Amino acid sequence: MLVLGLESSCDETGLALYDTERGLLAHALHSQIAMHREYGGVVPELASRDHIRRALPLLEQVLDQSNRALADVDAIAFTQGPGLAGALLVGASIANGLALALRKPVIGIHHLEGHLLSPLLVDAPPAFPFVALLVSGGHTQLMRVTDVGQYETLGETLDDAAGEAFDKTAKLLGLGYPGGPEVSRLAEFGTPGAVVLPRPMLHSGDLDFSFSGLKTAVLTAVRKLGANVCEQDKADIARGFVDAAVDVLAAKAIAALKQTRLKRLVVAGGVGANRQLREALNAAAKRRGFAVHYPDLALCTDNGAMIALAGALRLARWPEQAQHAYAFTVKPRWDLSTLATQ
């Protein structure tokens, strides 16, 4: 089965072709970072309009790369939610329009399920069951994954997501957009221990997270320095923030493995590309004897490949989930644990 995947939940337009026998054939991605940079964040209306402009050229690109024709596609998967409503509507309308023209089935995919399953695209994918740490700009969750569609929430953020805290810290330090990678790069030059920030809920006894207090601590540190802040001060604050965030994420992930008695950890989402987080988890895996799996760096951010894969896996297990009526809805808010498995 050849599945076309289309991702448009926020500020990246991604398309991909996944073959259930040969794997990922091609994927193409357009990021809107340059367009949103002057606003310091994503402007939903601009994001929606740009998805309209980019989707069909990207479709032509993946078809050309894979040496396939549109008529070869057996099914189309699109991101149904969660995400920006307008951006989701663009992707849903394009996917359903193509499916109607081709008379092919279409299936809506949960954006986080795509991230959750993206490490299965690597050459040596993890086996079920495993613990998943989903960490991005909009979500921070720990899940027990028994199989495709079988997800149990173990813990989640009570307020802000880790990626949001990275972006807010970047703004406070006067860094560029997107902020997460900039904070991580600046932290490389920080002095360990020069700025010690709180580790929220590190010893809470559960698997939940909270990052609002950490953002406030960064704000306090910046204000304390006032006009006297220099580049080294900024690097020290960035280092303190990254160390605190990574300590919490790693500790909670390890606690989840211990609680579930599992030995495989999957890390997915944009923050999963963070070098410091990967180093901390890799070191812990070596000490404690568990395996940690990541998607390729190019597939950590939003992409069409993860949507195509999730669509292919769902259609293989539950072919009745395929839609042929081409009437669609989107779900800007959608709890991962409510996904249908029949």
UniProtKB/TrEMBL annotation:
Its EC number is 2.3.1.234. Pfam families: TsaD. CDD domains: ASKHA_NBD_TsaD_bac (cd24133). Required for the formation of a threonylcarbamoyl group on adenosine at position 37 (t(6)A37) in tRNAs that read codons beginning with adenine. Is involved in the transfer of the threonylcarbamoyl moiety of threonylcarbamoyl-AMP (TC-AMP) to the N6 group of A37, together with TsaE and TsaB. TsaD likely plays a direct catalytic role in this reaction. The keyword Cell wall biogenesis/degradation does not apply. This is tRNA N6-adenosine threonylcarbamoyltransferase. Substrate binds at residues 134-138, 167, 180, 274. It is an enzyme of class 2 (transferase). It comes from the Bacteria. One of its GO terms (molecular function) is tRNA N(6)-L-threonylcarbamoyladenine synthase activity. Residues 24-308 form the Gcp-like domain. The lineage of its organism: Bacteria, Pseudomonadati, Pseudomonadota, Betaproteobacteria, Burkholderiales. It is found in: Cytoplasm. NCBIfam families: gcp_kae1, T6A_TsaD_YgjD. Fe cation binds at residues 111, 115, 302. Belongs to the KAE1 / TsaD family. One of its GO terms (cellular component) is cytoplasm.
